[in-house]
Design a protein that fits this description.
The chain is α/β, with parallel strands linked by helices and 227 residues long. The protein has 2 domains: 4-26 and 95-223, Rossmann fold (3-Layer(aba) Sandwich), CATH 3.40.50; 28-90. Helix content is 44%, strand content 11%. Helix 1 (28-41) crosses helix 4 (76-90). The chain has helices spanning 28-41, 48-54, 59-70, 76-90, 101-110, 123-132, 156-165, 179-187, 203-208, 216-223; strands at 4-5, 15-18, 115-118, 141-143, 172-176, 191-194, 211-213. A 7-stranded parallel beta sheet has the order 1-7-6-5-2-3-4, with helices on both faces.
Length: 227
C-alpha cells in the first residue's frame, strides 16, 4: 500500500514528541543486521516477517513474538543480551541521525516549542544512543520503557511525555516510524505523522487517516514554511 506523500498539512501545535529508533536515529537497519546475525548464531532463522513484527515493539512484546515464532526453547534473554552488546559496540563511533532530524529539533527549540522523546527502549539504551548522536540535550524529557506500565501501542508513553511538557496531548505533534508507535500516538489524541523507515504503512494506518511522508525534512518545512 502506497500512502507516501510529498505534501503535508499540519495543524498548529505547541509541542513535538519524537520516537527514537527509526525516527530520530538511523539505527533500525543496523539493528536488523544484528538480529539476523544473532539468531543465526543461536541456531534460529530470522525472517523478514518476524523482523517486521518486532519493529517498534517493547522488550516484552519482542520476547512474545520470538517465542510465538520459534517456540518456548528460544533463548530470549541470551538473544537480547547479545544484541545489546553488539549494538553498543557498533555505536562507539557515533549513532547516525535520520535526515532532517537535527535541523527540525534545533529549530523547534529556537522557536521555544518544547520537545520530547517517547521510546520503547529502556533508559540506558536511549540515553546512550541519543547522547552518542549528540541529540540528548535537545530534548526537555525522554520517556522510556522504564517510565511506563504499558508500552506502545498503548498511549501511555505519549501521554506521559505530554504531561511532562505540560502541554495537552491534542496540542502535540507526534512523529513515528512504526505501526505500534503510530497507534500509540493516535490513541493519545495527538496529531500524528508517520515517517516510515523499515516498515511501510498498512490498511490500519490508512484507516486512522494518518499522514505519511518520506522524511523529517518535509515535516520541518511544513511546520515552518520557507518563503
Amino acid at each position: 500500500m502506497t500512502l507516501l506523500s510529498d505534501t503535508l498539512r499540519l495543524r498548529p501545535f505547541r509541542a513535538a514528541i519524537f520516537d527514537m529508533d527509526g525516527t530520530l536515529l538511523d539505527t533500525e537497519a543496523v539493528f536488523r543486521d544484528i538480529v539476523y546475525d544473532v539468531c543465526t548464531d543461536l541456531g534460529f532463522e530470522m525472517t523478514d516477517d518476524v523482523h517486521r513484527s518486532m519493529v517498534g515493539s517493547s522488550h516484552e512484546r519482542t520476547s512474545q513474538l520470538l517465542i510465538e515464532a520459534y517456540g518456548v526453547a528460544f533463548p530470549y534473554s541470551l538473544f537480547d543480551e547479545k544484541c545489546r552488546v553488539i549494538m553498543r559496540e557498533r555505536s562507539h563511533s557515533g549513532v547516525p541521525v535520520k535526515a532532517g532530524a537535527r535541523e527540525f529539533v534545533t529549530e523547534l527549540r529556537e522557536r521555544g516549542i518544547p520537545t520530547a522523546v517517547a521510546t520503547s527502549s529502556r533508559n540506558p539504551h536511549a540515553a546512550h544512543h541519543l547522547g552518542a548522536a549528540g541529540l540528548l540535550d535537545l530534548f526537555e524529557t525522554v520517556v522510556t520503557r522504564d517510565d511506563v506500565v504499558h508500552p506502545k501501542p498503548h498511549p501511555e508513553p505519549y501521554l506521559i511525555a505530554a504531561k511532562r511538557l505540560r502541554i495537552e496531548p491534542a496540542a502535540c505533534l507526534a512523529l513515528e516510524d512504526s505501526h505500534a508507535g503510530v497507534h500509540a500516538a493516535h490513541a493519545a489524541g495527538m496529531q500524528t505523522i508517520m515517517v516510515p523507515d523499515l516498515v511501510d504503512p498498512d490498511a490500519q494506518i490508512a484507516a486512522l487517516g494518518i499522514q505519511v511522508v518520506r522524511n523529517l525534512t518535509l515535516v520541518h518545512h511544513a511546520a515552518f514554511p520557507r518563503d
